[in-house]
Every structure is written in C-alpha cells, then in structure tokens.
Amino acid sequence: MLFGRRRRDSYVAAELERRIADCDGVCQGFAGSNPLRFMKQYAAAGLKFPVVTGETGGDDALLRSFGDEAIGLVSCCLYTLDLNTESNRAIRFA
User: Fold this and answer.
1) At residue 5, does pLDDT exceed 60?
2) Prediction pTM value
3) Which end is more exposed in the chain, N or C (fewer Cβ atoms within 10 Å of the end residue's Cβ)?
C-alpha cells in the first residue's frame, strides 16, 4: 500500500512509477477535486495500471469532469443516475 503525502500538490503518480514493479492495480481514495488532479497526473506519468476508486473518487458528478485520462477507471459506486434498472431505482429513491 502506498500513501501520498498530505500536501496539496503532492500526488502518488511519481512515487508509483518509482516504487512498483509487480503491481496489479492502484486504489485511489481521494475526494473533492483531488481525483481529477490525480488521474491527470497518473496519465501524464504514463502509468497503465488499472485504477479502482470508491464513491468519492468516481461518482456521477465527477465522471462528467474527467477526460480521457479516466478511461478504464473502475468506480465502486453503489448506484448511478444513468442506469435505468429496478435495483438502481430502488437505491436512488429509497
């Protein structure tokens, strides 16, 4: 597990490139606008490991703000506003 420093301008993309050789994926747990910044820096570093995130890192509001750097991002959100299924509606309107 690798944690970024707690400075606003420090993200883990450069550290990931330097430290990992046998990695299956990356889990990012940023919130607010930080997931956008991380994914841009991650893509700029040329890293290709799959990125998994929780709800705060890839919810519907954020997905509209991402560009191509987020292609392949896996979000563990419980629901989405854009999926019209019975189970999704049950969660949205509960």
Assistant:
1) no
2) 0.69
3) N
